[in-house]
Design a protein that fits this description.
Layout: H1 3-18, E1 22-28, E2 32-34, E3 38-47, E4 59-66, E5 71-79, E6 86-91, E7 99-106, E8 119-126, E9 133-139, E10 150-155, E11 158-163, E12 171-178, E13 181-188, E14 193-196, E15 203-211, E16 216-225, E17 232-239, E18 246-254, E19 263-271, H2 284-290, H3 298-303, E20 317-325, E21 335-340, E22 345-350, E23 356-361, E24 369-374, E25 383-387, E26 400-407, H4 409-421, E27 453-455, H5 461-464, H6 468-474, E28 479-481, E29 487-489, E30 492-496, E31 499-501, H7 504-508, E32 515-521, E33 543-549, E34 564-567, E35 599-607, E36 613-619, E37 626-635, E38 640-648
Parallel strand pairs: 2-8, 30-33
Antiparallel strand pairs: 1-3, 3-6, 4-5, 4-7, 7-8, 9-26, 10-11, 11-14, 12-13, 12-15, 15-16, 17-18, 18-36, 19-35, 19-37, 20-23, 20-25, 21-22, 21-24, 24-34, 27-32, 28-29, 30-31, 32-33, 37-38
Amino acid sequence: MDNDSISVMSHLLDYYSKVPQERIYLHTDRPYYMVGDTIWFRAHLLDAATRIPVSRSRYVYVELYEQNADTLVQRMKVRCDSSGVFANAMFLSKTMTSGSYTMVAYTQWMRNFGSDYFCYKPIYVTAKTGDDRYVSCVEAPIALQSSPLLEVKQRKGQLLIRMSDASESDTLTCVIYGGGNLVETPYVGSRVLRIGMGRLRPGVVTVAMIRPQDKLVLASCETQIASRDSICVSMKSQMTEGKKMPIASTLTLTDQEGRPLKGTFSVSVTDYDVVKPDTLQPTLSQWAVSRRDGVYPLADMLRGRYPQMTYPIETEQRITGRVKGTLKSKLKNPSLLVVNPMRAYYNRFELGDSSSFSMEIDCPEGAEWVLEGAKKNGRTSLVQLEIDKQSFPQISLPIYSIRESSSLNSFMKQSKLQQMFSRNVEIELPEFVRIGKYQKKQKKNFMNIEAVRGIPQDDPRLEWATTMRVLMSQLGIWVTITPEGEQHMQNVVCYIDNFKETDHSIVLQTNPSDVKSIEYFPKNRSENGVFGVRFSPNGTIPGVLFIFLKDGSEIKRRNHLLSMAKVQPLGYRYNMEFYSPQYPKVDKSDYMRPDYRTTLYWNPSVTTDDAGKVRVQFYSSDVSKHYLLTIEGVMANGRPVSWQGLINI
């Protein structure tokens, strides 16, 4: 290889090191869920160029969108553990509607390269009581780029490359990159260049012809190298027939030569009788082959041009802002008071000549910080504190092709039974008829009309509810999150003590113990017009909500002191551990609670030993005799692993 080829190689490697890019794949425990279920997931964060697992970014953002309404349902922040694994759980509200949803995962660093390279994972959520069918959302394959000057074919285990207009005297450099590949070789004249497919990793690769004298890209095109799955997985299971019996499976992962494979994988075990795998959704191995790595403009890479980055690699959480005078005058040596009541933290910082500040924090979800700016003498008059708001990307959901699949009746029936008998879950009882004299509710709204729904005075739900969002779910009101991170009640006009309140975030921050009673008139009812509501642009009549506070109670208004601010950044969610019941006793009659689990085992961080083995242990349920074991992950060398196997009792 001549010096020009080495120079081209060094440019590409230099770009990879200075502009690293990331890709994410989401592995969930199953493809569809019931309202009230929990989504267990792991975000596999990989280096885009090498496909090697990385944890440069400490946080991964996971969002859930309703596909049809294109509405953000919830957003969470996942912090990597000590092993560099990003895993957690997402809870599905009972108030969600049936339909297709999309989970979106990204890092702050990935925002520099556009939302097209985020991870989009479609799931289905059912809330129906009758018949329902699983709907699979299939994303269209990417369109590979072509060139009229460059011909690339795959034939008999070789990659054939030919430049159509090259003369016999031209000496060019052929570069193949992408999919974890980086190959350079000289190309002379118009001959056919043959490269063995065994040298290339599977994936979408770019083939380019470069003139080495001036590093000019003459032509480039894309081709997809098919996967040559040489992963061998053997499974041996030990089990006892019956209900609530232990099952132990040992998996051995090797390559074709029998060498053990080392890596950290996510493993799930589901009830195969009611949860069928979605064969239309790509596994991690298929996803790695069918997606582009990222944004790698070859011309910029060869000339050392690097893009301007707006978002840094997020290794810590930060609150940024500035302290300034209200009369546009610069303050001399201002100070900043920082208080965190949850941690009993209190400190004052001198900002010196700079009025801007950047404070490193490490806080979980729901933590609140109180900040106050002051002059050098400690006074706050004519002082203004500005806090930079957290920004989130504008997501454009993919357009899927819809395909109906199997019926979900058996899954819904079993999920409802499991939710009924599990702990910490509401038990839905059938309607009952009250015999006796009916006492009318006290009419309190300003039109003196009997409410359709409500929570009366002294109702125990007002005492045990921890947040207003819980009370809203009791009334069938769906609380969503705006792109700015604010809570919002869709199609609802709200009144506090008969005074209209347009800021729903203030209403939802009210302490439920301060509420005396609630009345609610659901949407799309003609009588709502007497309260002055009008049709929304989509033709919906908004619902009307009346909240009445106890005597002496007030809703917490926002603090309008210019020198003070309350900040509640999106903190990380504490890692949730998957609960798997244990039935160690031989006499199973001691365990009275029925077991209808659909996900029996979930472990997002399973590491193989030196022999490539991993052991999975769980107890069987009361209803199934067939279980599907799924393992997905990426080895340390960037090789993806995806495998499924059946365990039959």
